[in-house]
Model the fold of this input.
Amino acid sequence: MGKNCLPVHFKGECNIGNGSTCNCDIIMFGYKEKCDEAKNGNLEHVEYIHRYGTTWNTGRNYLYEHAMKRKTAYLYYIFVDEDASLRPNADSNVNVTSLGLWRSFENFLVEYKPAVGIATYCHDKTQACKGQRNKPGGNGVYVLSGYLFDACFNAFHHDALPYLLPYNLKNENKSWWYSQHYVATLAKHYFQGSVLIYGNVNIVNGEHSMYPRTSDSERFKLQDLVISKDVDLITKSRKRPEWKSRINVSETMDKHICKC
Done:
């Protein structure tokens, strides 16, 4: 999701700009302008869609609805903002970096099959991420113990997706953060222990435009209270799904924000 065309940093064989190497399809939603970029042999897997006048939340929902109409049965749906990019963690082993960060993250999804898969998050892409998130010799996979996670890079398993999306637009006029707060709270209820962090990869998101947001701790506490009550009502009528045949991960990560 971005202004118009697929960003340059997403292109290339090591990223998602080549359909034969990523084994994926891409729907690029443009919220400002239509993309007139001509397709070449490597971009046949990219579809461009466009709609004026959307917010971040309504744009994501439009993208979600469009993806659900496709006949292809995908294992994961990865939602990513155009200004987000992957970076290796400080202690990522050579196998991760030689394979490529996108391929490494995709392999993590296929092997561990989390309900939601995320990476460690870093605000500033101008500095190197220095947080040590992986133990030497470890696989770098952790259970998210704190339930909130940023929306800029989320991979949803197709069985988990109906429990979490579409994005809730309630209170959007107050803060666009409410919608992801709903997603994270629902994920905590339905899939606690199955929201996994791949610590070998950092997601860097350095651009932040002006939009309605929760900017102080008191407003955030109120937001959390409102959402928790709403989620209690939502989840009363829907049982938790069984999450079978998944690899158990015992180690937890208290904080999933990379220090820059």
About this structure: The radius of gyration is 18 Å. DSSP finds seven helices and nine strands in the chain. Strands lie at 26-30, 46-50, 76-80, 84-88, 116-122, 141-144, 153-157, 195-205, 252-253. The mean pLDDT is 81.
